[in-house]
Automatic annotation (TrEMBL):
Keywords: Membrane, Repeat, TPR repeat, Transmembrane, Transmembrane helix
Lineage: Bacteria, Candidatus Amesiibacteriota
Per-repeat ranges for TPR: 424-457
Name of the protein: Uncharacterized protein
Record keyword Transmembrane helix present: yes
Pfam name, any one: TPR_16
Transmembrane segments: 7-29, 141-165, 195-213, 234-255, 267-285, 297-314, 350-367
SMART domains: TPR (SM00028)
InterPro entries for the chain: O-mannosyl-transferase_TMTC, TPR-like_helical_dom_sf, TPR_rpt
Length: 544
């Protein structure tokens, strides 16, 4: 017990040291929409709405991950929109996960190996994206609750609660329904019948909340791979699996975003990955087959964990990045478990090589944290070392647009469109650039093209702004009326409706729009607008 306390203290100190420089990084990418511009997390009175995904922002409405939203609201209630505290919570959860990893593996492997596994998981650069990116809070949460469920399998109530919380954190929590069942099948089969009942109740409860939240299951194709057929996506599996194995074993030149697709399978993108993957899997299977009975069961469990954790991210069901480091957050524990089992046969001391390994991993992660200082720095760094990639170019273009570097933004937007011509988001950025350059009709055409390709809410918002400022009120209102039916959770569209309806003296309609705007925003400005319209007082609203 005394050794365990020392190890846990070492995990905490190491984790804080490795991620300390990330605490001072800014909000990036979805952090802005999920926290800074998301009124749903700005008041604790909205916690029930967060659980049901009601009155949430348009960005959040396509996901059902209420636990992370609730935690954002709790942090915001105390610290407002200060990135430091969100980074601290995220790192603390990762440290807690590393502690749970240590405690779990200590039950099954040698103590020194359990310590090594937990420290590798804690410091490995493949986890840096998950920890440094505040919007990835759902990943640390689903693993946290999933790991907790493995400690309480003899208690059906707690097991069900933790599995449900894992699912409510992120859909990836579904893997722990299978992982926990595999564990009981291999080590305590008498609990399986009761456990299956727990899974049934947990699944039904999650399904119930998901249905009443009215969260859509399907999403628009955000990246090229989501437009491919099942067969085409299956041909990507060798390259995807190769990416995770390679990045875990050799974490070099990490990138935040990957949206590549394989246009033509060849030696480098297909044959080499197949051979490499078969070699890794062959070594693991061969090792498991040579182990004794108890070790074999443990080896099978870790192999199942690896297979399940990777399997749900191999694009069999299309997901919104081709690969991403945070997709490997759980699966790596299966791989680490197998490596740990192999190390039980090593006779020499692991202290020196383990210390060198942890030092190298830690320094690499600390260095990568500095790339995440702010969004502009990260994108400039990653774009410079990446292969042509639709998502990287599009995000870089959006960042350049925010810096008023319109000519450079236009170049990268057109590159993104050339890589993914069906991207409504790329045409939306193109329209935004044209609008800022004063090319109103080009902007209108780009926004219209964006809407024709994808039901992307921002395109409707941007065209709504353009029409509110430049078109006759009747035309603008006709468009905004249809747009708010399609995107009722867009506060911007309701705001534009208020402006147009007050211009047209449609007082009753303006009150209704103001009410919807206030329900979504919940701030002082929206309250004043709604209150003044209710009292038939003049409202002075200016578009920026």
């Amino acid at each position: 017990m005394r050794d365990s306390k020392k190890v846990i203290l070492a995990i905490i100190i190491t984790g804080l040291a490795v991620y300390f420089n990330s605490f001072f990084n800014a909000f990036v990418f979805d952090d802005i929409g999920l926290i800074v511009q998301n009124p749903s997390v700005h008041s604790l009175s909205r916690l029930p709405d967060l659980l049901l995904n009601h009155n949430s922002s348009q960005l959040v409405s396509h996901y059902y991950r209420p636990i992370s939203q609730i935690l954002y609201a709790l942090i915001y209630a105390v610290f407002k929109a200060v990135p430091f505290w969100y980074h601290l919570v995220q790192a603390s959860l990762h440290i807690a996960n590393a502690t749970l990893v240590y405690l779990f593996f200590k039950k099954h492997l040698r103590h020194d190996i359990a310590v090594l596994i937990s420290l590798v998981f804690l410091t490995h650069p493949i986890n840096q994206f998950t920890v440094a990116y505040i919007s990835s809070l759902h990943d640390t949460l689903y693993l946290f609750f999933g790991l907790l469920s493995l400690f309480v399998l003899s208690n059906p109530v707690l097991t069900g609660v933790f599995l449900l919380l894992s699912l409510l954190s992120k859909e990836s929590g579904i893997q722990f329904l299978v992982i926990s069942s595999s564990y009981l099948f291999l080590f305590n089969r008498k609990l399986l019948p009761r456990h299956f009942m727990v899974l049934l109740i947990t699944g039904f409860t999650y399904f119930f909340f998901r249905v009443i939240s009215q969260t859509p299951i399907s999403k628009d194709p955000l990246v090229p791979i989501m437009t491919l057929s099942l067969y085409q996506r299956l041909t990507h599996i060798p390259a995807i699996a190769f990416y995770y194995f390679k990045t875990f074993l050799f974490p070099h030149q990490l990138l935040a975003f990957h949206s590549w697709v394989i246009s033509a399978p060849g030696i480098r993108n297909y044959i080499v990955p197949v051979i490499f993957n078969l070699a890794i899997i062959g070594i693991l299977v061969k090792f498991i087959s040579t182990t004794r009975k108890l070790e074999k069961a443990l080896g099978l469990f870790f192999f199942y964990w690896l297979a399940i954790g990777m399997g749900i991210h191999l694009q069999i069901i299309p997901i919104d990045m081709t690969v991403s480091d945070h997709f490997f957050y759980s699966a790596q524990l299966g791989l680490l478990g197998l490596f740990g089992l192999m190390l039980t046969r090593v006779k020499f001391s692991l202290t020196i090589p383990a210390a060198i390994l942890i030092a190298v991993l830690s320094l690499t992660t600390v260095n990568r944290n500095s790339d995440w200082k702010n969004q502009s720095r990260l994108l400039a760094h990653d774009h410079a070392i990446s292969q042509p990639d639709y998502l990287m170019d599009l995000l870089y273009a959006g960042d350049l647009l925010g810096q008023n570097k319109y000519d450079q933004a236009l170049i990268h937007t057109k590159t993104a469109i050339s890589l993914y011509p069906q991207s409504g988001r790329a045409y939306n950025v193109l329209g935004s650039i044209y609008y800022q350059q004063g090319e109103t009709e080009k902007a209108r055409a780009a926004f219209t093209k964006s809407m024709a390709l994808n039901n992307y809410y921002a395109s409707y918002e941007n065209l709504g702004l353009l029409m509110t400022k430049h078109d006759p009120p009747a035309s603008a209102l006709a468009f905004l009326t249809q747009a708010t039916k399609k995107f009722p959770k867009s506060d911007k569209l309701w705001f534009y409706r208020i402006i147009v309806e007050t211009r047209m003296n449609y007082h009753d309609q303006a009150i209704k729009s103001a009410q919807n705007y206030y329900l979504l925003k919940g701030d002082e400005v929206s309250q004043v607008i709604y209150s003044r319209l209710l009292q038939s007082l003049p409202v002075n609203i200016e578009l920026k």
